[in-house]
Design goal:
With 248 residues, the chain is an alpha+beta fold. It has one domain. Helix content is 30%, strand content 23%. It contains seven helices and 15 strands. It has a three-stranded antiparallel beta sheet, with no helix packed on it. The chain has a three-stranded antiparallel beta sheet with strand order 2-12-9. Strands 4-6-5 form a three-stranded antiparallel beta sheet. Strand 10 and strand 11 form a beta hairpin. The longest helix is centred in the middle third of the chain and has 29 residues. The protein starts with a strand and ends with a helix. The relative contact order is 0.19. The mean pLDDT is 90.
Length: 248
């Protein structure tokens, strides 16, 4: 059986009902997220993410597939929402972070990818001393696990909707590459972000009636405008970066 860990996870194993798991403390930033300048987001998160973070679309190699992500920093390896291991206060924490150390992943058995996903846990968080039980002595789920399982299940469903949305936006030719550049008053070298894609708003008016109806029916058009409005949040990132420089 071959289990491929999701981005950010190192060594995962199927969840054993007898094991105790060390959960993240409130607001704790998992180690993998401390050096990320962007993080995947899901379909239903757009409205919450758009209040604070810029939402852009990242592309796989050769632009074969796209995914929505929240931008966390202005340079590689920079998470401006990480305050010494704690997520910035009064800011929505993306579900990709909150679900850690758990995940759901596809399994390959005899070189055949299985349709059913498997709930796994990061092995470094399996801890009999500091961990918490997820199931009782009879193997029945505890209230804490029911909450986590709901988050995992809903998140995976949400990711499928995100993939469908990105596929439609790409098929309709609405995504275009763009860059961001900012210069600080200190005279330092300008910061330049590349490799990003956004929806070209001017192309929306050229869609036919059927395409527009599909965007509205699937709730994609609302997310397109949440994404476009969120691009103003690059100013918030610059403010965070400038504030960090003053404090340094």
């Amino acid at each position: 059986m071959d289990i491929t860990p999701p981005f950010g996870y190192k060594n995962i194993a199927p969840l054993d009902r007898k094991e105790k798991v060390r959960l993240l403390a409130p607001g704790e930033v998992p180690a993998f997220a401390r050096g990320l300048n962007s993080i995947p987001i899901s379909y239903t998160e757009f409205a919450l993410i758009a209040r604070e973070y810029p939402i852009i679309f990242s592309a796989s190699e050769n632009n074969q597939a796209y995914a929505p992500v929240a931008v966390l920093g202005m340079t590689a390896g920079e998470n401006l929402y990480d305050n010494n291991g704690t997520w910035a206060s009064n800011v929505y924490v993306p579900a990709y972070v909150r679900r850690f150390p758990f995940c759901m992943t596809r399994v390959t058995l005899d070189k055949v990818e299985q349709q059913q996903r498997l709930i796994c846990v990061e092995k470094s968080h399996i801890d009999d001393k500091k961990g918490e039980p997820m199931f009782d002595a009879k193997g029945q789920p505890l209230a804490k696990w029911k909450e986590i399982e709901t988050l995992l299940t809903e998140y995976e469903i949400d990711l499928e909707r995100s993939r469908e949305m990105c596929g439609i936006l790409a098929d309709y030719g609405l995504l275009e590459p763009f860059t961001m550049q900012a210069r600080f008053n200190s005279g330092d070298e300008p910061v330049r972000l590349t490799g990003m894609h956004r929806v070209a708003e001017t192309k929306i008016e050229h869609l036919n009636a059927s395409q527009l109806k599909n965007l509205v029916k699937k709730g994609i058009l609302a997310r397109v405008y949440a994404h476009l409005l969120s691009l103003d949040n690059f100013a918030k990132l610059l403010d965070r970066k400038a504030a960090g420089r003053k404090a340094a």
